[in-house]
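cache lookup: miss for this entity combination. No prior model stored, computing from scratch. Input as submitted by user K.M.:
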Amino acid sequence: MIIDLPRFVQAEKPYWDELQRVLETVEAEPARRMPLPEIQRLHYLYERCSADLARLDTFATEPQLRAFLESLVSRAYSEIHETRAPFRIAWKSLALAFPRAFRRHLGAFRLAVAVTLLGCAFGWFIVRQDPQAKAVVMPFPGLMTSPAERVAKEESAKADRYKGVKATFSAELMTNNIRVTLMAMAAGITWGAGTLIVLFFNGVILGAVAADYIAGGQATFLAGWLLPHGSIEIPAILLGGQAGFILAGALIGWGGRTSRSERFRAVAHDLFAIVAGAAVLLVWAGLVEAFISQYHQPVIPYSLKIGFGVCELVALAAFLGWAGRE
Amino acid sequence: MKNRERSLTIETPEGVVFSYQLATPVTRSLAWAVDAAAIGVASSIAAKVSQAAGLLSPDLANALAIALYFVISIAYGIVLEWRWRGQTLGKRLLGLRVVDAQGLRLQLPQIALRNLLRVLDMLPLLYLVGGIAALVSRKGQRLGDLAANTVVAHERMWLTPDLEQIAPARYNSLLAWPHLAARLRSLASPEAVGMAVEALARRDGYDPAARVELFGELAAYFRSLVEFPEAALEGLTDEQYVRSALRVIYGGAGSASGITVGSHARLTPAK
């Protein structure tokens, strides 16, 4: 119990003011390393203000003073008890955080690949079984004609279909694909069910298109058409799926003793790195799809397009597999 | 919904407790409406800018407009909440702030995660998924908040009431008994004091009968805390008594603390 409140305030206020000043400098530069005496002083001030707050608890009519001290203590608490390193934008470590995070959660990526392959197999199977199903699984008017017809049309095209709208097309592709990837990640919060659906559905379309073109004898055209952008775009969407499964894993938390909030806390950095990396990949894929993928033989030979796609895939795999390995 | 909490209480290892008052879905949707408007304005400005690029090539202008709108709608929340330590324009206006659910420092990946999960919370329309999640979850978190481990809390804003308006300094008979005045100060609850301040501020708007009854109840409460001797209460109406009591409660200690509230008593300083 404080008997003489004004005197208490008078005696303690210098410490509160000092803590406030220290907090302001710390918050302004989160990346600064404090020397030991400063840290000790901050800790002392924090404990002193905590004690003052506890003593003031018996003094209920000082709402402003209490609120003031509570805010000071809560701010100091977040600085002192934070064990995660402050997040800094350092491009090199950010670029390496992406492949590192990818490798830390390989299981989730394998699951994403497996689900997509399952979808592919399903799409392949139904188009082979029942050609009428094409209209259902591939809701794109451009793919409704028979593959041979389309190839003949594309290869004999005199005028550039995308002339004057290439950049727009590219921006649409980027935003749409990034949206799908974000959705695959965010849908992980439904215990992974949403991510499963997004990936499976993507797989079905991919499998159905592949089945259609290969059955029509147009495998080279298909590879030349899809590989330049697909070798980046499909892995990027798989990465989104990986992020979704990481999120779902943190939500479910099999066999761990940590609480749900701790598990979420543990994966937040990795999720961010993977999603940001996938978004960058999709920007590249969008450019390639609009400016290269839509041009076929004789404008760009198929061998060049396929070779380009394979190179991209190898480079991506090397980056994800080896960059920043210790 | 039954066990929804209205505040998030954090106990430090030192045994000291502090709390955040959680924001309700209604306040949050108001803040979101402001943010949606801000995004709208920003993207229409971006559209104007990209029209200027249309002089070079209309294709480029279209692409720029699409890309800018996408970037603005996604980055708005992330960048602002990061730079302003958990606030967007709407949250600033409504006095809300995103804070870490454990009271720790808010980090960029957390902010990014809670904003990226918006695509799910917004489904199927008007934040239905997020709204239901916020109503059901104990701390009023939407899915993005759950994944990022954050809550949205009210900023503390305590404004010192303008005593000269509601209780002008006159001779105050209660102050003649300083030990009793000190007791009254330490016993009165903040809620009751807040009510008395409100009641005095609006006293001219009440019906005469309601006014007498209201101040009668308030005075009875303050009297039940501390018994002043007859001499102090002589000739005081209930309303005058409440006024004197407030003067005692604020005048004694409030001014002594010398803290200008409003600017300091925020979760973090506004920069």
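stored under new cache key. Chain A is about 75% helix and 0% strand.
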